[in-house]
Automatic annotation (TrEMBL):
InterPro entries: Methyltransf_Superfamily (IPR050508), SAM-dependent_MTases_sf (IPR029063). It comes from the Eukaryota. SUPFAM superfamilies: S-adenosyl-L-methionine-dependent methyltransferases (SSF53335). Residues 376-388 have a biased composition (Low complexity). Residues 363-399 are annotated as: Disordered. This is S-adenosyl-L-methionine-dependent methyltransferase. It comes from Apiospora hydei.
């Protein structure tokens, strides 16, 4: 019989079903399909169930809406689920659940760290875009006086020197495998970039396939270049080599990726690709992920429903993100963990904030590069210091 949740999606998606409703509907569906009445087959449900969708649209070898294959059990991550019938519905489905579980606040903090030349991997529908600082990118559309006042406000009305050295986002490159998701991302870009900078170059209902040009994707792929190349939207698989930065630089200053390690076939390869395009020493890779908790009760619930969850959302929500990072650290020369946190209390430690950097392995004057202990701290301001976990120094795990 059709899924009860699928029926709800057809009726409307303005409000998300409660955990109790989801539990009841799934038990009812299980009872009907098995022909038994009052079936009490365990249907574990955690608060993560309501926030599974951000992981749907990461990287795969298939487009949105293509059917699942036998290979999906091995992690050939799909970007589709039966209960959400379109990218628009998928995007709207996230609004309330992301606010409820603190994802919106984390996205805002993540975007504040995006400075210099920025690459967002698996950008999906562009849910981080509204939180980026676009002032430097749109500087040509603003009078000089207004631009200087904006800089002074950011520095707390400091000195002229502070204005000159103010770190801002100089360019933005976003990459995703799904053109349907990129259509929504372009529409959101038109809405959130200030000063009307996008209104003249993007239609109200932009189509990536119509706007994309070969070679505009900073390589062999297709992409859309806007504002003289300061903004680029590229179609590509994040498990292949990532787009190169703008011609003026060799590496990105900031690489961002949200809710993707749980959906790709090889998460270590994804981290390797990001490490290959970030500036050594000064550049940062910032990940916002979800996966295993440090509570075994929660992990048991995730494990029991992992396969069904993957078949529906394209996400292995029981992956150990900390272990994935440690494996990548052991395999990628110079990769270091700068920060590892588990923010928020409502998700029982399943959300993870990771900041990485790549050390310059070239010897300088015969001096080695000493490892720095991962730091923790700013997430305490979110009221979750007692849930914060820092990766121990020299605590690498063996494969």
């Amino acid at each position: 019989m059709p899924s009860m949740v699928a029926r709800l999606s057809k009726v409307g998606h303005a409000s998300s079903p409660s955990p109790l409703q989801l539990r009841f509907w799934r038990r009812a569906a299980s009872s009907s399909s098995s022909g038994k009445k009052n079936s009490h087959k365990p249907l574990p449900l955690s608060c993560r169930q309501l926030h599974a969708a951000p992981i749907v649209v990461v990287t795969s070898n298939r487009g949105f809406g293509e059917p699942l294959s036998e290979a999906t059990e091995l992690g050939d991550a799909p970007a589709w689920r039966p209960a959400i019938e379109s990218p628009v519905e998928f995007d709207q489905h996230l609004d309330r659940s992301e606010w409820r579980f603190g994802i919106t606040k984390l996205r805002r903090h993540l975007a504040a760290e995006a400075t210099g030349h920025v690459l967002e991997v698996a950008m999906g529908t562009g849910r981080n875009m509204e939180f980026y600082d676009w002032d430097a990118v749109t500087a040509d559309y603003v009078p000089a006086g207004e631009r200087n006042r904006s800089k002074l406000a950011k520095t707390g009305w400091g000195t002229k020197g502070n204005i000159t050295d103010l770190p801002e986002m100089e360019s933005f490159t976003g990459v995703d495998i799904s053109t349907a998701m990129l259509d929504i991302g372009l529409q959101r870009l038109r809405q959130v970039v200030p000063h009307g900078a996008m209104e003249d170059v993007l239609p109200k209902q932009p189509s990536f396939e119509q706007l994309a040009r070969p070679g505009a994707g900073a390589g062999s792929g297709t992409g859309v270049q806007l504002l003289c190349g300061k903004v680029r939207i590229v179609q590509g698989d994040a498990q292949s080599p990532l787009p190169t930065p703008p011609k003026s630089v060799d590496k990105y200053d900031t690489v961002i990726q949200t809710f993707g390690l749980c959906s790709v076939r090889d998460p270590t390869l994804l981290i390797h690709n990001m490490a290959a395009v970030v500036k050594p020493e000064t550049g940062r890779i910032i990940l916002l992920e979800h996966g295993r908790s440090w509570w075994e009760l929660i992990n048991g619930l995730l494990d029991r429903s992992a396969k069904g969850h993957f078949e529906r959302f394209g996400c292995w929500w029981n992956r150990d993100i900390e272990d994935i990072v440690e494996v990548a650290k052991s395999r990628i020369p110079g990769l270091e963990v700068v920060e590892f946190q588990r923010p928020g209390w409502a998700t029982f430690g399943t959300h993870v904030w990771v900041e990485l950097r790549v050390r310059d392995m070239k010897p300088k004057g015969g001096q080695g590069t000493g490892a720095e202990e991962p730091r923790s701290g700013w997430l305490r301001s979110l009221g979750s210091s007692w849930l914060s976990v820092s990766t121990p120094k020299n605590g690498e795990k063996k494969d």
